[in-house]
Amino acid sequence: MSVLSDLEARSGSTCELCTGTNNLEVFEVEPVTISGVDSSILACETCRTQILDPEQMDANHWRCLNDSMWSEYDSVKVVAWRMLSRLKSEGWPKDLLDMIYLEPEALDWAKATGEGMAEADKIIHIDVNGVILENGDSVVLIKDLKIKGSSQVAKQGTAVRRISLDRENAEFIEGKVGPTLTVIITKYVKKI
């Protein structure tokens, strides 16, 4: 079965956040370490648009999180936590945030994008040209880099797709160079 059909079966063919049914699609919850059902949710167009573009937020739409935050699936709870964190200035989401429970690894996943942190506390990853890097971006190496623990050299111009950001250090990102997952210093990459 495909991820889409598994998620449709899991959710009863409704959005796992608001129970809407318009334009349902698989939405991967960043950062994605292993693609599949466990790192994805089935989300409607309205939810996807507002998750990806905070400027499009309609706080009343997210009152649905009062129900979906109790999902048995971590991916749904992670998105619920992030949206409640984004909306906590509205008042009512703060009460729900106080009630939601995530296991420690799920909470780390929820916090991985910096949602819920004060703007001054967020770690910002910047490439060689000063462009801000995000989880899932693609970058290209600007110089040859030796990969530690191997005889492999990543050549200048090598594309690294779907990077992950180090939450504790703004100078490091992770990405696959060939089959090897490696840590790369941000001053040696530029965003594609």
Description of the structure:
Helices cover 27% and strands 20% of the residues. With 192 residues, it is α+β, with helices and mostly antiparallel strands. The protein has 2 domains: 3-117, no CATH class; 121-191, SH3 type barrels. Strands 8-5-12 form a 3-stranded antiparallel sheet, with no helix packed on it. A 3-stranded antiparallel sheet has the order 9-10-11, with no helix packed on it. A hairpin with a 6-residue loop joins strand 9 and strand 10 (172-177). The longest helix is centred in the middle third of the chain and has 14 residues, at 74-87. The protein is globular and about 50 Å long.
> Radius of gyration over alpha carbons?
18 Å
- The counted number of beta strands is 12
Number of domains as seen in the coordinates: 2
Biggest pleated sheet: 3 strands, antiparallel
Task: Enumerate how many helices there are, as a single number.
Answer: 6
> Which runs of at least 5 residues are low in confidence (pLDDT < 50)?
none
Class computed from helices, strands and strand pairing: alpha+beta
Q: How do the strands of the widest beta sheet line up side by side?
A: 8-5-12
**Helix amount, in percent?**
25-40%
Query: What's the average pLDDT?
Result: 88
What best-fitting shape do the alpha-carbon axes yield? globular
Please render the helix and strand layout as text:
Blueprint: H1 3-11, E1 25-28, E2 40-43, H2 45-52, H3 65-68, H4 74-87, H5 92-99, H6 104-111, E3 125-126, E4 132-133, E5 139-141, E6 145-146, E7 153-154, E8 159-160, E9 164-165, E10 172-177, E11 180-185, E12 189-191
Antiparallel strand pairs: 1-2, 3-4, 5-8, 5-12, 6-7, 9-10, 10-11
Helix pairs in contact: 4-5, 4-6
